[in-house]
Amino acid sequence: MTPNRFDVITFDCYGTLVDWERGIADAFASEASRKGTTFDGPAIVSAYHRIEPEVQAGTYRSYREILAEAAHRVASAFSWDLEPDHDGFLADSLPDWPPFPDTSDALRRLAEAGFRLGILSNVDGDLLAGTLRRLPDVFDADLIVTAQAVGSYKPAPGHFEEARRRIGARRWMHAAQSDFHDIRPAGELGIPAAWVNRTRAARPSDRPSPMLEVPTLAALADALVSTDPAA
Question: In sequence order, which residues have a C-beta less than 8 Å from that of residue 229 and are 6 or more positions away?
Fold first, then answer.
């Protein structure tokens, strides 16, 4: 039996299910090592946070192209000349980006409780397929929406509109870590949202609060899965 009033939960993937900050930092560190240099991981991640949305805001390109352009811009910000024939290192590393430690168990608990699970992600389908091999096989294929499928990147509404079309009348919650990419646009579209606030970020005071705020995916499962057999 599905607890409370939701039938479907969709997730952002990178940052919510998968530790993309660690993945990006490790990929840059590996590439820097190849060049005989080092980078400050938190500074790289901070620059990437700023630069990737700028690249995604332009004309739609594949996520592989977005990653390559963002890598060039980040490298340039640190006075590193990234050779064109090595700008695919982020895309090549993406399937190895690790899930958060609580992700697999939380997903299994939610699936076993009767929720149908999906993903709304700013990636190409083949890149996401690599990540899915590291996650439990609990997702409904029809509820996986990529940027490649809709031709745009969140926070644009394409993912949410396509998910709404596929979900239909079923009761739906979207869960994500990024306020910018997910929580804010979901709220603007009237979609109930759970903010998985892994970074303990402060909520902007000028925007409505999400339906639910939790620090981890495990806490989201705790909130949504009833432990009372009579419930």
Answer: none
Alpha carbons 189 and 87: distance in angstroms, whole number: 36
Q: Are 97 and 39 in contact (CB under 8 A)?
A: no
pLDDT at position 4, please?
A: 57
Inter-residue contact 39 to 78 (CB < 8 Å): yes
Tokens of 189: 């579209």
**What is the full DSSP assignment across 17-44?**
TB-HHHHHHHHHHHHHHHTT----HHHH
Structure tokens at 50: 């700023």
The bridge status of strand 8-11 relative to strand 172-176 is parallel
- Please report the pLDDT score of residue 228 as a whole number: 40
How does pLDDT run across 130-182, given as a tens digit for each residue? 999 999 999 999 999 999 999 999 999 999 999 999 999 999 999 999 999 99
Query: What residue ranges define each of the domains in the chain, with the CATH number in brackets?
Result: 8-19+98-224 (3.40.50.1000), 20-96 (1.10.150.750)
Q: What is the pTM of this model?
A: 0.92
Contact (CB, 8 A) for 8 and 172: yes
Comparing CA positions, the residue from 15, 9, 10, 50 lying closest to residue 131 is: 15
Residues catalogued as catalytic: 12
Confidence of residue 39 (pLDDT cuts 50, 70, 90): confident
